[in-house]
Amino acid sequence: MEAGTHLTGGTPGGLGPLGVRRRRWGEEVIRALLFLAAAISVLTTVGILVALLTESIPFFREVGTKFFTESEWSPLFADPQFGIWPLLNGTFLITGIAILVAVPIGLGSAVYLSEYASPRVRKTVKPILEVLVGVPTVVFGYFALAFVTPEILQALGIKVGIYNALSAGLVMGIMIVPTIASISEDAMRAVPQGLREGAYGMGATKRQVATKVVFPAAISGIVAACVLGVSRGVGETMIVLLAAGLDPNLGINPVDGYATITTFMGAAADGDNPAGSIGYESIFACGLTLFFLTLLMNMIAIRFVRRYREVYE
To answer: Which helix (H) or strand (E) holds 227?
Structure first.
């Protein structure tokens, strides 16, 4: 007993002061690495914000409130106009069409894979669905331009031009579906099986279990999936640039062409605008607008989840 106590550092439990110090040292290293990972994420966000503000502040000093009060956008023309509303209108319109496509299909796919599909079907379908996440968006853009518009929309008798919001929104929705479906399905699968068994034991049907037990229990992950999908749609460039065009438009007719915040940024950041010019600074002003727009969506989603949890609990 004495020999065993001596070898383990003087305590009969087998973990002496030296072992305790090693364990604490290892935990401190892990804690430091995790803190570093979190700090890098925060510092990256702060760095992006600082970079945007550095170029946006001179822009707003010169333009002032015209950015929010005027309704024409042409900062690169001889007679520049700086009203952001046409770009916001195009962004919201195309993203709205994408949401109408992606959310029902994505959530329906998630419910099927989580609650109805057999393990064999799930193992086959989910990897195929997730392959779409890796498809470059420029491919989706050319798909919308070269196939959806002429072969589907025009073939159906819809009078659309080469560039239109409908084609861009439909294809963007298809692009977002795997993101919403995959994350939502993971959230639903994470719901404890005991909740399902308890509901079945009370006589609930599979549909009732899926919609009234699993779905509410996984609402945090589902909302996160939808917000991530919408944020990806709002920030999408190539699909809208190729399929919807570059026409700043305040209308709501989906068969017309529109410009979005990202398409202007992509088209204007081609090197023709010298640093320090108003056209160059307008790119950063649009980026700052997009940054706060995404932040607002995330804040609304967090508040919605908290309120829904209070009602559900």
So the answer is: helix 219-234
Give me the helix-helix angle, 17-63 and 278-312, nearest 10°. 130
Rounded Cα distance between 140 and 175, Å, is 8
Note the pTM of the prediction, 2 decimals: 0.84
Q: How far apart are the first and last CA of the chain?
A: 55
Residue with tokens 């579906």: 177
* Cα three-residue angle 131-137-142, rounded to 5 degrees: 110
Q: HEC profile for 141-183?
A: HHHHHHHHHHHHHCCCCCCCCCCCHHHHHHHHHHHHHHHHHHH
Q: How many other CB atoms are there within 10 angstroms of residue 193's CB atom? A: 8
What is the per-residue pLDDT across 244-276, written as a single tens digit (0 to 9) for each?
A: 988 888 888 999 999 999 999 888 877 677 777
Tokens found for residue 46:
């702060």
Q: Is the dihedral of CA 58, 63, 64, 70 positive or negative?
A: negative
Q: Report the length, in residues, of the chain.
A: 313
The 3-state DSSP class for residue 256 equals coil
Q: What is the DSSP letter of 193?
A: H
Query: Alpha-carbon distance 140 to 245, whole Å?
Result: 15
- Phi-psi category of 9—alpha, beta or left, where left has phi over 0 and alpha has psi -120 to 50? left
CB 102 within 8 A of CB 180: yes
Residue 85: its H or E element: helix 85-111
